[in-house]
Amino acid sequence: MIMPPLAHRKAIDRSLASFFHTHRPAAFRRAISELCSFYHLKRPKIEWYEYLDWGKTAGKTMEDGRILLVHPENWKRGRIYKSERMWVQMIYHEMGHFLFWADAERKAESFTRRMVLGLGDRATRGASRRSPLRSRRAGGTASRRAGGLRRRRNIAAIRRRKKSRRA
Questions:
Q1: What are the sequence ranges of the domains in the chain?
Q2: Could you tell me the pTM of the whole model?
């Protein structure tokens, strides 16, 4: 995965740490904007809560791109691990969800191209008679081919023997 350069990561980290201590929204917006601008994404809509999921969850990324976060003022209350580092890492975790869910259509198209790549005419001709995923016996393609050849030779040999017995 491509990560921002170390200088950008340090600046983002300093801004998040500053927001944790001072609660100034500008520091948080600056950090999120720098991260999103590196990945060429729009800033997510962020909603602040006192607690999520009865205090068990610290952050949640919704499928529509919203990020629900516990504010640092409330983070310090009622948690075993209430350190600044844990809160900053929670922000990184939720932003990771946001980054991976972004631009799903392009990722689906890329997946489709990679799946079809190398198939040649087969993709346009239609399905083959037998699925390549369902083989009669275990083993690689070479063993299946050899097995089919042996069977054909054996069938031909049996037919020859039957003809010679009749004559």
A1: 6-103, 135-167
A2: 0.61
**pLDDT single digits (tens) 40-61:** 999 999 999 888 877 677 888 8
Q: What would the two tokens of residue 53 be?
A: 């999921």
Q: Which long-range contacts (CB under 8 A, 24 or more apart) does 99-105 make?
A: 99/39, 99/41, 101/61, 101/63, 101/65, 102/39, 102/41, 102/65, 103/41
Closest CA to 97 of 128, 60, 131, 123: 60
- The beta strand positions in the chain, using DSSP E, are 46-49, 59-61, 67-70
φ, ψ at 10 (rounded to 5°):
-65, -40
Cβ 98 vs Cβ 65: under 8 Å: yes
Cα–Cα distance measured from residue 11 to residue 32, given in angstroms and rounded to the nearest whole number: 11
Burial class of residue 19, CB neighbours in 10 A (0-12, 13-18, 19+): buried
